[in-house]
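Page 42, continued from yesterday. The earlier attempt failed because a stray header line got pasted into the input along with the sequence. Redoing it now with the clean sequence only.
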Amino acid sequence: MKKSSALFVLFYGCVIMVASAQSTLSDSSGNQESVRNTIDLYYKSIGENAHLYNGSEYISNNYQVNRNPFFENIFLLSGSVAYDGTLYKNVPLAYDIYHDEVIINRYDRNYRIKLISEKIDSFSLFGHYFIRIVPDSADNPLLAMGFYDLMYNGHVSVLVKRRKKYEETVTSSGVISQFTEDDYFFVKKNNLYYPVHNKKTTLQVFKDKKKDLQKLLRKNKIKFKPDPEFGIVKAAEYYDQLKN
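This time it went through. C-alpha cells are written below.
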C-alpha cells in the first residue's frame, strides 16, 4: 500500500473511532481522553506530511542567549499552535518578536522554519497565549497587525504587543549588536483597542469606574511601577469585578 493511501486509511479509521466514541460516551472524561489519544496518534503517524511543516527556512544568524530577537528563550521549547484550522500540541517552537514570526524545526531535520503568519490563529508558549489580530484600520488605527499576548480576557481584555529593538554600538573593539525588549500595552473595551502605558492612561479607559477602581488599587497595594503590565492586568480584573 502506498504511504499516502496508508495515511488516508489511518485518518479515516481515526474519524470512525472518534465518531463512534462520541456517539456512545459523549459525556465521559475517559472518552475525551481516548479521542485526544487517537488524534495524537494520527499526527505522530503522518509525521513530516503534517500540514504544519510547510513554512520557509529561518536563518538564525547565530544569535546569543543574551542578544537575540526571541521572546523569553532562544531555544525551541514545547508549545502549541493553531495553524490553518488545526491545533498542534507539544510542538517545539520559539517566537521571534523582532520579526513577529513563529519558528519550529523542520520535521526530523536539523534546521528551523518559520510558519506562515497568516495561517496562525494562536499559539501558546511559556504559559503565554498569543493571538493574531488583523485590525480594522478605521476603528483601530493605532493597532498594528500581528501577534498579541492575551494577558487577561474578560469583559475587557489586556493585550501586549511584544517587541524588540535592534541597536548597534560602535566600540574600540568592534560593533556590538543588541536586542532590547520594548512592549506596548492595549486594553480592549467595547470592541475598541486603547493604548495604555501607566496608571493614568489605564484609568482613563476605565473612567466610568475610576473612583471605585482607585480605591481597589490602593486597598490591594497595586503598583504600576516598575511593572506596568502587572498593574494594567490587575486594573482590568478589578474593573470587571466592579461592572459585575
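Notes: Confidence is low (pLDDT under 50) at residues 1-26.
Reminder to self: strip header lines before submitting.
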